[in-house]
Amino acid sequence: MTASTFIPEDPRDPLAFRRCLGQFATGITVVTTQLADGTLVGMTINSFNSVSLEPPLVVWSLSLHLAQRPLLEACEYYAINVLAADQEAVSRRFASKQPDRFAGVEWTPGLGGAPLLPGCAASFEVRNAIRHAGGDHLVFIGEVERCSRSDREPLLYYGGRYRQLAPLVIVDAQN
């Protein structure tokens, strides 16, 4: 086994900090909501994680500079759609700057009308409970009111690229 070589980085340098964060593999999700006037809001995030089992809480964050931030901050419900391995195009669409990210996208309404995207690995329907300032981001802590899952593999992001899980290889230790 070879020893790892660590490269010191300055966390005050945003690019250096980002390179270190890129060493942590994350799932890719699309957060969605529907405003009272029917406007659909959705964007790709990978800052999603669990907080608590009792009560069921999740956390994610959003840059203060994004135009969608006040819309997501004010909504009552949102959905977290955990993308499946074959949904890279969905991730790219909701990460884009195109004005209508939902154009031609199928979805079904969840709690509060929050769009649930088909074909995902999992989905969480979340009440927008707590928001905290966190540096240049707003941190959302939401209470999960409904969730569902499929047997689909997740889409991952690591080292600045989309990734997929490798097939599990079982090694027979007796041979």
Summarize the structure in words:
- This protein is mainly β.
- It has 3 helices and 12 strands.
- Helix content is 13%, strand content 39%.
- Strands 3-2-6-9-10-5-4 form a 7-stranded antiparallel beta sheet. Strands 1-11-12 form a 3-stranded antiparallel beta sheet, with no helix packed on it.
- Strand 2 and strand 3 (40-45) form a beta hairpin.
Helix content: 10-25%
- Quantity of strands, as a count: 12
Whole-number radius of gyration? 18 Å
Strand order of the largest sheet: 3-2-6-9-10-5-4
Specify the biggest β-sheet: 7 strands, antiparallel
Write a concise synopsis of the structure shown.
The chain is mainly beta and 175 residues long. The protein has helices spanning 14-21, 69-74, 88-95, and strands at 26-27, 29-34, 40-45, 49-52, 57-63, 77-82, 108-109, 115-116, 122-134, 137-149, 155-158, 161-164.
